[in-house]
Amino acid sequence: MSYDNDNIFAKILRDEIPSFKVYEDDYTLAFMDIMPQADGHTLVIPKFQAETLLDIPADELTHTMTTVQKVMSALKSTLGVEGVVLLQLNGTAAGQTVPHLHFHLIPEHLTKLSGHGAAMGDMEKIKALAEKISEAL
């Protein structure tokens, strides 16, 4: 694997690009998707340099999935939703647009999602949701 250190998520991890952070620990970062498929659409990424699920060691993946669980729980309680779509794409052939392993947590029914990366969201609304979700964590 040849990891691209210039991908947007690597830049977010280095604070070179701003993001609406929801949660961060030594191993992971959770932040709002600025092109959301539904209100509350959150991304969880490992700090480990992995492009796909096949590139991350099991112990690093365990940390990442623990954060996925925490964020999913916060989304459900904060937004009052019963279900959250968990989406993870591996490789451009599967629709992955950023070459850094990431998990989409989308608090909506699968049939109601807008297109993947289709349109920029309302930044003020996204910021407000990020603050609300972050408080729950």
Question: What is the secondary structure topology, with strand pairs?
Answer:
Elements lengths: L7 H6 L7 E4 L3 E5 L9 E5 L11 H22 L5 E3 L15 E4 L16 H14 L1
Antiparallel strand pairs: 1-2, 2-3, 3-5, 4-5
Helix pairs in contact: 2-3
What would a concise description of this structure say?
The protein has 137 residues and is an alpha+beta fold.
List the main descriptive attributes of the protein structure presented here:
HIT family, subunit A, 5 strands, alpha+beta, globular, 3 helices, 137 residues, five-stranded antiparallel sheet, 31% helix
Describe the model.
With about 140 residues, this protein is an alpha+beta fold. The chain has one domain (about 10-135): HIT-like (HIT family, subunit A, 2-Layer Sandwich). Helices cover about 30% and strands about 15% of the residues. It has 3 helices and 5 strands, in the order αβββαββα. The protein has helices at about 10-15, 60-80, 125-135; strands spanning about 20-25, 30, 40-45, 85, 105. Strands 1-2-3-5-4 form a 5-stranded antiparallel β-sheet. Strand 1 and strand 2 (about 30) form a beta hairpin. The longest helix is centred in the middle third of the chain and has 22 residues, at about 60-80.
